[in-house]
Amino acid sequence: MLWKRKAASIVLGVGLLLAGCSEEEATPEEESSPPEQQEEDTTDENNKEYAFRYPLTGVGSDDEIKGRSVAVMINNDIHARPQTGLPEADIVYEILTEGNITRFLAIFQSNPPEEVGPVRSARDYFMDIAKGFNSLYIAHGFSTEAKVLSDNGYVDNINGMYYDGTLFYRSSERQAPHNSYTTFENIEKGAEKLRFDMGELPPSLSFMTDSDVEEIIGETAENVMVTYNSPLYDVIYEYDPESEKYKRFTNGEQTVDHQSGEPVLLDNIVILEAPHQVVDNKGRRDIDFSTGGEAYLVQKGKWKKIEWKNVDGRILPYENGQPAKLVTGKTWINVIPDNPGLTQSVSFEAITS
């Protein structure tokens, strides 16, 4: 099994050098396509033409596509795994919060799950990304900076600090703060109560045609390791040639849905570096997403070096000055500190038993 494997050669990364510290919940506490859905005559793998495509996955549909995206803060503490709802996410951003602990911003639009969680507290840089996608932002708790943004209406949001026991509920299987969940039915109720407009689609990403996919070039990426300086949060992606998708593993365990056991399967992986700075004694961070930088794009068993840009709040891959085309399907974006950076924190070495 994967968790019994070890690297066959020394990986490129030496790990992040930042000190870990435990997380604490706050107390009550391209240019890409326009927002309208795309009408295209490109075909999918069975050569069927579709009038419409989902904006965040590129998957075709005969029916008109409607619905605002919803961005949910999902806990990645070891006590919160396996999570619920991740396999249905169109895009997931994985970013450090306190210490070496990562947290997920899971963006749903094409196929929202019934239940999602554990839901965790807001951070300002996650709110920026949610706003960029015009998403309704779901969290439970705040950092100090995030609460200021929330109180001032920076982004439409529903927070479990105000709706614990109503729109949010606690699972008896886990202990707080790793047991907050909500449903998309409750999210819709909350949006209606707060009079949030849920009709506008998010801006569309750029996707490949079938012929584009056949021409993907790059170095071999059958296995990808992303180091966050802790085996509890280090990530391995393993390419499955049969499905032509990547499986995701953390701490030796495959990322699957807690309820159904359905695995997270990915078509695009973006790994990017950005400046990180610890800003308080709890280890909270300020991350500079304003200037862009270097990134790796992983697709269909290949990887190549590209760049990333901030496009109106969305952190997206670019190649040769243009939006990088994604394979139709789901995308996971890992953000790592620029010190030590991509070359020391990411490895494409083969993993053998």
Describe this structure in words.
The chain is mostly beta strands. It has a single domain (1-18, 28-353), classed as 3-Layer(bba) Sandwich (YerB-like fold). It has helices at residues 124-132, 144-151, 160-163, 184-193, 210-214, 342-345; strands spanning 6-7, 52-53, 60-61, 70-74, 91-96, 102-108, 115-116, 136-139, 157-159, 168-170, 180-183, 219-220, 223-226, 235-240, 245-250, 253-254, 265-266, 268-274, 276-278, 285-287, 293-299, 302-311, 314-319, 322-323, 331-337, 346-347, 351-352. Strands 4, 5, 6, 8, 9, 12, 18, 21, 22, 23, 24 and 25 form a 12-stranded mixed sheet that branches. Strands 13, 14, 15, 16, 17 and 26 form a 6-stranded antiparallel sheet that branches. The longest helix has 10 residues, at 184-193. This is DUF3048 family protein.
Topology:
Blueprint: E1 6-7, E2 52-53, E3 60-61, E4 70-74, E5 91-96, E6 102-108, E7 115-116, H1 124-132, E8 136-139, H2 144-151, E9 157-159, H3 160-163, E10 168-170, E11 180-183, H4 184-193, H5 210-214, E12 219-220, E13 223-226, E14 235-240, E15 245-250, E16 253-254, E17 265-266, E18 268-274, E19 276-278, E20 285-287, E21 293-299, E22 302-311, E23 314-319, E24 322-323, E25 331-337, H6 342-345, E26 346-347, E27 351-352
Parallel strand pairs: 4-8, 5-25, 8-9, 18-25
Antiparallel strand pairs: 1-27, 2-3, 4-6, 5-6, 7-11, 10-11, 12-22, 13-14, 13-26, 14-15, 15-16, 15-17, 18-21, 19-20, 21-22, 22-23, 23-24
